[in-house]
């Protein structure tokens, strides 16, 4: 176990707004407890409260008018269980910090998101994901949780616990997650190659061609601008004419005009998993920094039809878009996972930072994708009708029951949560 000791920084370190700046938290008080006991007393004594992670989500699911609590002041720990192939970490830990420590012990996580800056508990709560058709989202690696529930009790659950599949993607509404146990795999190396100008007819093959593949496009032409292939270090590099693309000869940033210095090494240079799976480096600003995001999971088999449906609104998308990313995620069993029992094709939009201009386009995108029962990313901007969303999740009603059972007084409820899970 690596103990890093308590962090005594003050409540001024608790973010007052989210990373993107489109949500200013409405909390009446901000807290940063330095022990689990202090956290438990705080929860027991509050009538309305929420955890905040690293603040990288784009909506108000976590925006309480009561007490907002950062768990980043709790003592941190990385505890590897070699026999079980698992690591237990503090919920507030950033994936980038966890990854470095895991790697030095010879372990890896099977996948990572595009940025290493996000907290483990915040990412798991919203089913954050990377890409790769045989890899589940980051929540699917969760083998156990420790959480402070509404009455201030400490609850430990694992895969053998009744309704565990409902608790993992908990939207922050079941309790404050102090520790998460994650499955690990032996550390591995990857190489990242960027290929340019992919035809849509080759998209499916490209997405399945390597460990993790992301395709970037801008909806200005039907062609797909870039393919980021994160492949096993011992897999041969793509051939010169791979799927009709050409090789990028300089490092790239997904958003045109931004510095590739912020991005993980490309051009086939081998390196550890945690320095290739994310697109962005830990010490640098991820993405554009001045943006909104939306993302929709549809069945993997619907990829071509979903893109064709969006062609009708490409003229609306392009003017408010910084970049669009296409990824894959394997199916899982978690109740509120957008990948619940569905191998998924995922369409992500990085929008300009203009909510008024973006929301009508989000509505148009959702309307075009509706035939494919899209499940929006829980941490991003969406306008889906609650009844329609409920119909896309077989366990939606079960999750509502779980909410009531674990939080009978709706302490963790927020206005946006209440819109989707009314009490
Ligand atoms: C630049 C950028 C790139 C991104 N790339 C990806 C990507 O590649 N893939 C992807 O899927 N998503 C991506 N996201 C979205 C991001 O991963 C999610 O929004 C995720 O929730 C962020 O984690 P966080 O710690 O910042 O959570 P926060 O925004 O702080 O919180 C999110 C939710 O989790 C809850 N929560 C946080 N901590 C706890 C806790 N300890 N206990 C209980 N509940 C808690 C909060 O109450 C809230 O409801 C990206 C976001 C940005 C800004």
Structural features, described:
With 423 residues, this protein is of the alpha+beta class. The protein is 20% helix and 25% strand. It has 11 helices and 20 strands. The chain has helices at residues 36-45, 95-104, 120-125, 164-167, 203-207, 303-311, 314-317, 355-369, 386-391, 396-406, 415-420; strands at 2-3, 29-31, 49-52, 67-70, 77-81, 86-90, 107-108, 142-148, 154-158, 176-183, 185-186, 189-198, 212-217, 224-232, 246-247, 271-272, 291-299, 321-329, 344-352, 375-376. The strands form 4 sheets. Strands 12, 13, 14, 15, 16, 17, 18, 19 and 20 form a 9-stranded antiparallel sheet that branches. Strand 5 (77-81) and strand 6 (86-90) form a beta hairpin. The longest helix has 15 residues, at 355-369. Bound molecules: flavin-adenine dinucleotide.
């Amino acid at each position: 176990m690596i103990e890093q000791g308590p962090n005594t920084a003050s409540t001024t370190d608790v973010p007052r707004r989210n990373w993107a700046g489109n949500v200013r938290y409405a909390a009446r008080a901000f807290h940063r407890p330095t022990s689990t006991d202090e956290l438990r007393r705080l929860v027991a004594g509050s009538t309305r409260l929420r955890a905040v992670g690293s603040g990288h989500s784009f909506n108000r699911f976590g925006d309480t008018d009561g007490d907002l609590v950062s768990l980043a002041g709790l003592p941190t720990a990385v505890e590897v269980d070699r026999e079980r192939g698992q690591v237990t970490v503090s919920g507030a830990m950033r994936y980038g910090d966890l990854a470095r420590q895991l790697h030095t012990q010879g372990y890896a996580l099977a996948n990572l998101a595009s940025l290493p800056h996000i907290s483990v508990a915040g990412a798991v709560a919203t089913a954050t994901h990377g890409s790769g058709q045989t890899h589940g989202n980051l929540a699917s690696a969760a083998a156990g949780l420790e959480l402070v529930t509404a009455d201030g009790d400490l609850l430990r659950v694992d895969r053998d616990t009744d309704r565990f599949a409902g608790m993992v993607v908990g939207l922050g509404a079941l309790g404050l997650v102090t520790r998460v146990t994650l499955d690990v795999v032996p550390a591995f190396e990857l190489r990242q190659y960027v290929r340019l100008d992919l035809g849509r007819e080759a998209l499916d093959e490209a997405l399945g061609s390597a460990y993790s593949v992301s395709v970037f496009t801008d909806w200005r032409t039907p062609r797909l601008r870039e393919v980021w292939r994160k492949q096993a270090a011992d897999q041969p590099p793509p051939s010169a004419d791979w799927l009709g693309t050409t090789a990028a000869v300089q490092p790239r940033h997904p958003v045109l005009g931004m510095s590739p210095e912020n991005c993980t090494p490309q051009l086939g240079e081998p390196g550890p998993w945690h320095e290739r799976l994310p697109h962005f480096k830990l010490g640098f600003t991820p993405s554009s920094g001045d943006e909104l995001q939306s993302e929709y999971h549809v069945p993997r088999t619907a990829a071509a039809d979903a893109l064709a449906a969006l062609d009708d609104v490409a003229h609306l998308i392009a003017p408010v878009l910084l970049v669009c990313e296409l990824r894959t995620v394997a199916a899982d069993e978690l109740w509120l996972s957008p990948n619940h029992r569905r191998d998924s094709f995922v369409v992500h939009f990085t929008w300009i930072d203009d909510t008024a201009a973006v929301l009508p386009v989000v509505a148009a995108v959702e309307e075009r994708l509706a035939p494919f029962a899209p499940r929006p990313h829980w941490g991003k901007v969406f306008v889906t009708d609650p009844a329609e969303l409920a119909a896309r999740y077989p366990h939606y009603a079960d999750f509502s029951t779980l909410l009531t059972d674990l939080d009978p007084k709706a302490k963790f409820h927020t206005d946006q949560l209440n819109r989707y899970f009314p009490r």
